Amino acid sequence: MSMHKPRTIIFNKPYDVLPCFTDPEGRPTLADYIDLPGVYAAGRLDRDSEGLMILTSDGALAHRITDPKHKLPKVYWVQVERVPGEEALAQLRRGVILSGVRTRPAQVRLFSGEPALPLRPVPIRVRKIVPTAWLEITLHEGMHRQVRRMTAAVGHPTLRLVRVAIGAMMLGELQPGQWRTLTTRECNQLLEGWRQQRAPLPRRRRR
Fold this sequence. Notes:
This protein is of the alpha+beta class. 18% of the residues lie in helices and 26% in strands. The protein has helices spanning 59-66, 86-94, 146-153, 184-196; strands spanning 8-13, 40-41, 50-56, 74-81, 97-98, 101-102, 107-110, 132-139, 158-166, 169-170, 179-181. The strands form 2 sheets. Strands 1, 2, 3, 4, 7, 8, 9, 10 and 11 form a 9-stranded mixed β-sheet that branches. It has a two-stranded antiparallel sheet with strand order 5-6. Residues 197-207 have low confidence and may be disordered.
């Protein structure tokens, strides 16, 4: 009996698309962009967020990507209200309290300008008198709506959120709504990245 080789793809999820294949209310879903039988999302990306998703028919790989104890690093580009000062950035790096739990230390940097991203079809809500800034935030965990809750906790609500990397996989030149198949080498890179995360992460990092 022949065995089908597992298939894994990366997808640039557009804004306002649900991270699933069906919706009883008829809202846009992954099925509007991906017509591949047997692949399922390895992890979530909220409807109002954009960017990189991994979908696979390999159950073992999906489990490794979404392992709750040893998550692969995920990188987000985040537009926030107002320009965060050093204290707000330090709070994000140290970890903030969300629902009684302190988030793990994160890597956070402030962009000097605006990153090169496609325009969003629905413009962000902006107030002309309030400046905005872009951050790059790297997380090693996946609490519910974590990035948005973190930036709000330090006084800088998120206006736009784009995931640009999961482990070694980067969004690259994929445009919103586009996907491509990962090579065997790229899948192995995901597995290797997961193995490197098996050691417990420290609660704090010193630079």
